[in-house]
Amino acid sequence: MSIKSTTPVSLGVIIGNRDFFPDKLVGECRTDLLDIFQKVGVKPIMLDESQTKLGGVETFQEAQKCAELFRKHADEIMGILVVLPNFGDERGVAETLKLARLDVPVLIQAYPDDLNRMDVARRRDAWCGKISVCNNLYQFGIKYSLTTKHVVHPSDPSFATDLTNFVATCRVVKGMRNVRIGAVGARPGGFNTVRYSEKILQRHGISVVTVDLSQILGNANKLTKDDQSVKERLEAIKAYTPTGRTPDDKLVQIAKLDVVLADFMAEHALDATAIQCWTSLQQNYGCNVCTSMSIMSENMLPSACEVDVTGTLSMYAMQLASGSPSALVDWNNNYADDENKCVLFHCGNWAKSFLPDIEISTAPILGTTVGEENTYGALAGRTPASPLTFGRISTDDPKGIIKAYIGEGALTDDALNTFGNRAVAKINNLQNLMQYVCRNGFEHHVVMNASKTAGILKEALSNYMGWEVYEHQS
User: Is residue 279, in this structure, part of any structural domain at all?
Assistant: First the structure.
């Protein structure tokens, strides 16, 4: 499944050339590229035809010109596309990338030869040239991606898919290297499973900003129902979801907390949050924060409960890959005796995109210990059939690494008579997946996204982030 960018993404473009191959292939290539760029939403940053021979890159001097152009647009370029209309000069490509020093994903494309046009005037030999370019990038220590087909014309539908997926890979890599996550409150005492290493995350560009839950609740308690900010958030909540039987005073509590969380995120320029819920919020404030978390996740600011920082990091990665919200769920129940199905569940913080029947409710399980009247704000709703990408990122402290697993399946419409946020997932070889999760010490939380983006995530997290990634094969 390809993911089309909603806004143009800037890619640096290197058109390789080699002097003993026909130059006109470079000019034809530029026309082909401009057409596909317009279709998939790419803004190219490439040499003008007057700057080098037809805008191609062959010599070291041309590599210098191209690298200088890329450096001028360094803040804009998210990835680089290397195009080989003929064999290309592998040194020119490698030197350009080395001199540009951008450290962004690189996609290598090579043109196919026409079996009926293998004469000197039209012969490309890009099949061979691509191998040489990749060999040089490997020697230089430059990471790169490949098209599905070894050689492919830009007009081939598979290249459009490759290019849009590459753009998604670039989004994931850029986002993960700069993400800022707010950790609101301490990890609940009964949840050792969500422990993680801030230091390992920071080494990979992932920053965690902490705040004591008492500070958040204290600021919320200073607000009143008459404050304009509270009134505005209350109206936004009512516009977001039916409130069910939730009392007005509980809605005001939820709105006040929402104001303070929004202020905290804005103050620290956060991309995501992980919030202490179980059970301090209910005991010390008297409501659940699920509704606010759902709204944030729906607005592409993912939020995970139980201070699951690497859980919300997983949500963010999947969101970047797909362009749609993610949800943190529990691997929760077997589905009767079907070994390839299971129940996904949480008290009620999933994004609205997963819940066509969304409604503010309570958390009955939590309510048995803290009083159900203190759990208003949890959401109820059933997720219907849809595509499924699932996965989890975790820090493995004994190994000093970040690791992950990802895979694809489907959400189904199978009958499910229970409460909260709920879904039924069908994943082939599910029993083997659970063996892997358990043997490798992963958390009981997993993330779901209504997409087919496991390949994008594998490429971004394994190839470019350098993490240990297991892709479940179904």
Answer: yes
When divided into structural domains, the chain yields a total of 2
Amino acid at 85: P
Rg (CA), the chain: 25
- E runs forming strands in 117-245: 145-146, 180-184, 207-211
Residues 94, 193 within the same domain: no
**DSSP code, position 165:** H
Write out pLDDT tens, residues 151-169.
Answer: 999 999 999 999 999 999 9
For residue 162, the domain's CATH number is: 3.40.50.10940
Q: Which residues contact 295 (CB under 8 A, 6 or more apart)?
A: 236, 237, 240, 258, 352
Which residues, in sequence order, are CB contacts of 439 under 8 Å at separation 6+?
A: none
User: 32-73, pLDDT tens digit by residue?
Assistant: 999 999 999 999 999 999 999 889 999 999 999 999 999 999
**Token pair belonging to 463:** 């190839």
Q: Rounded to an integer, what distance in angstroms lies between the CA atom of residue 335 and that of residue 427?
A: 12
Token pair for 252: 């005001």
Q: Which domain holds residue 240?
A: 180-471
Question: Domain end: 129, 147, 176, which one?
Answer: 176
Domain stops at, among 148, 176, 204: 176
82, 112 in Cβ contact below 8 A?
no
Which positions ≥6 away from 267 have C-beta within 8 Å? none
Amino acid 24: pLDDT: 83
Average per-residue pLDDT for the chain: 96
User: In angstroms, rounded to a whole number, what is the distance separating the alpha carbons of residues 35 and 128?
Assistant: 26
Q: Which two tokens stand for residue 361?
A: 């409710």
The model's confidence at residue 118, banded by pLDDT at 50, 70 and 90, is confident
Residue appearing with tokens 């697993």: 405
- Among 421, 422, 426, 382, which Cα is nearest to 407's? 426
